[in-house]
Design a protein that fits this description.
The complex is a heterodimer.
Chain A lengths: L9 H25 L4 H15 L4 E2 L5 E2 L4 H8 L1 H19 L7 H24 L7 H32 L14 H34 L1 H4 L1 H7 L8 H13 L16 H8 L4 H7 L15 H6 L7 H11 L9 H43 L1
Helix pairs in contact in A: 1-4, 1-5, 1-15, 2-4, 3-4, 3-5, 4-5, 5-6, 6-7, 14-15
Chain B lengths: L8 H4 L14 H29 L3 H4 L2 H17 L3 H17 L4 H9 L2 H9 L12 E7 L5 E2 L2 E2 L3 E5 H27 L2 H10 L4 H30 L7 H32 L16 H24 L1
Antiparallel strand pairs in B: 1-4, 2-3
Helix pairs in contact in B: 2-10, 4-8, 4-9, 4-12, 5-8, 5-12, 6-8, 7-8, 9-10
The chains are: A mainly alpha, B mainly alpha.
Chain lengths: 377, 316
């Protein structure tokens, strides 16, 4: 499941970095609260443990062997957020030293295996185990089920990232530039073996580890609960996050609006409005194009028109374009809005995460600088 | 550190003579434990080998780690943007030049890159050559069905052909993967782990993350040692064979034991750190100095990158 470099377009790889940086930041914040100075040795040794158990071969019926990630077990013992950082560190070392997974793809791999797998798995385990006692069968069954769910959620994200390459990134003659299969091939090709074999190994191994720990080291299973009860400080982010999610959900409302915001005209609209396009504007207009032009996927009808259109799809494209972002008083087509909504939402999420990521990095750098200064003083 | 891990040769299959009980007769059943031991011993050998290559005199070894990291990662990003396979091939050629200038045997370098990842990429790309998986202009037809072939709702068309687009896509994918892996291998092989971590500090990677990375790398070897000891203890007490079911239980219980041991270890390390004055704020010392050669190298790489992306845009 480790994605090597070359399979993902730089746009996707960059987008995955933008998704995973806020997750790391949040995980770091949680670690500071629960572990404080203890975080470095605990997380480092958990990461080393993760790295080593990923190398264990597990015998399968039929004579072959498989591997486990152990994300849920680690999350149960040291907490889901410490597990996020520990698995990420193990992935970074695998990528740099052992060529297992790409360097640019560290963002994607950390998001899928390092974030989705332990977080989905751990919360599924919590939900399924309810209030059952630590040593009850319900607990180890829930741990196994959580491991299965976490691993398959990670595989699904990986499959979607692969599938988007085949759908979106092709050369002019239709040949693939990165991973060549579309979503319809990538999702079943990834999910069937993961749901049947890989997920099952993960589930069985997790349950067996859990049962063994009940017998030999039950204290470790309550370790995270104890750490959490000692946690200090913290502030409530829930209202802020709810607000941001609400705003995100509302972004496609913009598609219903007709007309262009004052001063944000494209060269074409300027031409229509004032009769000519100023020379400088014409010259610089095509210098930079975003990787989701017009908030649509590259290659979709809307983007094709935005890029100037090609002969074959021009008429159809213009019709869709007019329906969706009409500058005239034509009625808004609901179909057009429905078609553009996913790309609009993804643009919104990516944009927001990018902004949050940059803001957090800036704060980090500035805070780091002032701290350095204090130390010098 | 010595060159050899403490694992006995007869367990990794490298020994001659002695007890061959693991490989004779019950290979299928015992292979899981043996495979793990071989994998772990390879990991240790690999990293020791990297440190040795990083100590040799050579172009990349003598380049400032920060400048080298920026240059090689820049090339990696440029490679991911390229569309024309000739240009990707040119960057691959550059990695070969850099490898031989850094006293890395070309045969070793090519084998290390091509034996693993691009072969794997080739298997993944193989079905995409054919029109039934990815439509395109036929380059040569393998089989004319004579009629439209369909299986339930799936239609496979009237011919099975290798397409022009499929072939081009596969070549681009394999070359891109090989070039990216080559750049990553060059970076990791020619830089000492400690320098690599310090170089990452320049790229705004938080200090605490680097501290965790460096501790992880150190403790991987300790935990690998614990794991191989557990396996050695088990195999040396084995008479006859065990069932896969029993082996699964053994592997899972080893993982649980290792988790317990790791946790105790982390508590001990924490106490040791606190007693030595650690407050939760890691501090690092920078001792890098750039020389003219570093900037010349970086300048050359930037020029090469710009030339590659520029000609890629022109050639399309």
């Amino acid at each position: 499941m480790h994605i090597p470099d070359g399979y993902l377009s730089p746009q996707t790889a960059g987008g995955m970095w933008a998704l995973v940086v806020p997750a790391w930041y949040w995980a770091g914040h949680q670690l500071k609260r629960t572990l404080s100075a203890r975080q470095a040795p605990l997380v480092a040794i958990a990461a080393a443990f993760t790295f080593v158990i990923m190398m264990f071969n597990i015998p399968l019926p039929g004579g072959t062997t498989g591997h486990a990630v152990g994300g849920v077990v680690i999350a149960i013992v040291i907490g889901p957020w410490a597990a996020v950082i520990a698995i990420t560190v193990a992935l970074v070392i695998q990528a740099i030293f052992f060529g297992d997974g790409g360097i640019l793809a560290i963002g994607a791999n950390s998001f899928n295996i390092g974030f989705i797998c332990p977080v989905v798995g751990y919360y599924a385990y919590r939900f399924l185990s309810g209030g059952a006692a630590t040593d009850s069968p319900r607990r180890w069954l829930a741990a196994g089920a959580g491991a299965w769910l976490g691993l398959n959620a990670a595989a699904l994200f990986t499959a979607i990232e692969f599938g988007l390459q085949g759908e979106l990134f092709t050369a002019g003659d239709g040949s693939a530039l990165y991973s060549p299969y579309g979503l319809a091939t990538a999702i079943p090709a990834m999910m069937v073996p993961h749901m049947l074999v890989v997920g099952t190994i993960e589930a069985v191994t997790t349950s067996l580890i859990y049962v063994f720990m009940i017998k030999t080291n039950p204290g470790l299973l309550d370790n995270y609960a104890n750490l959490k009860s000692q946690a200090v400080g913290g502030y409530k982010l829930r209202p802020l996050i709810t607000g941001i999610v609400l705003l995100l959900v509302c972004t496609p409302l913009g598609l219903l609006a007709t007309g262009t915001a004052w001063g944000e005209w494209g060269t074409e609209e300027i031409g229509n409005e004032i009769g000519y396009v100023p020379e400088g504007m014409e010259k610089f207009a095509r210098r930079w194009e975003g990787f989701l032009p017009e908030y649509a996927f590259p290659g979709s009808q809307k983007a094709v028109v935005a890029e100037g259109g090609d002969a074959g799809s021009e008429d159809k494209g213009i019709a869709a374009f007019e329906a969706v972002v009409s500058t005239e008083e034509t009625p808004v087509s609901l179909e057009g809005v429905a078609e553009s909504t996913p790309a609009y939402l993804i643009s919104g999420v990516l944009g927001l995460l990018l902004v949050v990521g940059v803001a957090l990095m800036t704060i980090r750098v500035l805070a780091g600088k002032s701290r350095d200064k204090e130390q010098l003083d | 550190m010595t060159d050899e891990s403490s694992t006995p040769d007869w367990m990794t299959g490298n020994g001659d003579g002695g007890c061959q009980c693991l490989s004779a007769g019950h290979t299928r059943r015992e292979s899981a434990i043996q495979k793990s031991v071989i994998g772990m011993s390879h990991a240790i050998r690999n990293s020791l080998f990297s440190e040795r290559v990083a100590s040799r005199p050579g172009l990349l070894q003598e380049t400032d780690p920060r400048v080298k990291t920026a240059g090689l990662l820049g090339l990696l990003v440029a490679t991911s943007f390229l569309r024309n396979w000739y240009i990707i091939l040119a960057i691959y050629g550059l990695t070969l030049v850099m490898a031989s200038a850094s006293s890395i045997s070309l045969l070793f370098f090519i084998k290390r890159v091509w034996l693993f990842v691009p072969v794997f990429a080739g298997i993944i790309a193989l079905p995409s050559l054919f029109n039934i998986f990815r439509p395109g202009d036929p380059l040569f037809t393998i089989w004319d069905f004579g009629r439209e072939l369909s299986l339930g709702p799936l239609s496979f068309g009237t011919t099975l052909a290798v397409t022009h687009q499929g072939l081009k896509g596969a070549v681009v994918l394999i070359l891109r993967v090989a070039t990216s892996v080559s750049l990553a291998v060059l970076w990791a092989l020619t830089t000492h782990w400690a320098d690599l971590l310090k170089a990452l500090r320049v790229f705004l990677v938080p200090r605490i993350f680097l501290l965790i990375l460096s501790m992880t790398y150190r403790y991987i070897f300790l935990i690998l040692g614990l794991a191989t000891d557990m396996f050695t203890a088990r195999t040396s007490r084995m008479v006859g064979s065990s069932s896969p079911r029993e082996d699964r239980r053994f592997v899972a219980s080893s993982m649980a034991t290792l988790l317990g041991k790791s946790h105790t270890l982390s508590e001990d390390v924490y106490s040791a750190m606190i007693s030595r004055g650690y407050t939760g704020e890691p501090l690092t010392i920078h001792r890098f100095k750039t020389a003219t050669g570093d900037w010349l190298w970086l300048g050359a790489i930037i020029l090469f990158g710009i030339a590659a992306t520029g000609s890629d845009r022109l050639l399309g």
